[in-house]
What does this fold into?
Amino acid sequence: MGGFKTESINSAFATGIINIIIAHLTNCSNQMKEDCIANDNLLKNDEDVITNRLSAMYLNTEPGIFRYQTQSPEHYDGETDRYIGRTDIKVISRDYFRDEKAYHIVECKRIDGTTTLNQKYITEGVKRFFSPAPQPKYSSYYLQNIMFGYVVQAIDIPENADKIDKLQGSLLKEAVAAQFMLRQNESSQCYVYACEYIAADIGRIELSHLFFDFTDAICKK
It folds into this structure.
């Protein structure tokens, strides 16, 4: 993943990498959903449960250019001997072994159409890429990362994405967000939006917002 001298080429290359990761996340989510239903082994309505099964049973089962690590500590603070963040999924490639800062992050949050979870998607998700001093909880080495919304209730995903988009203007104080731009929509159960952010400390970064409908794979108890 070495860089090119032309910024536009670098940007296109980075977007291509993000698209590969998103495609893998989507394919594995589709397979997990099918297996949950076929085997009557539904998921608890719990973010960690969904993330753990996806990672342990699907994301790393085949050889690939990326490895997916769950619950990775992030940003060691030498003054307190603690890590200030913990990523849901860290996506590493061979670049990581040359530079331990070289990885992408997938931050996962449940979505059910309620204002409560929509707000948490921003305040406990998006904000982690921008939170102030001493540094953001999550790094952005490639200036591109992913928010993964686990849709756990039957909702209109584009309508809810629009609500989240509007909430960013009032809840996200650490960065200025552009509008969501629809990047992919292969079916009614999966939508991908791109959104650019400008923050004083790190400049311009992009988050891809992947919303996948897990509703039929979630235990209703």
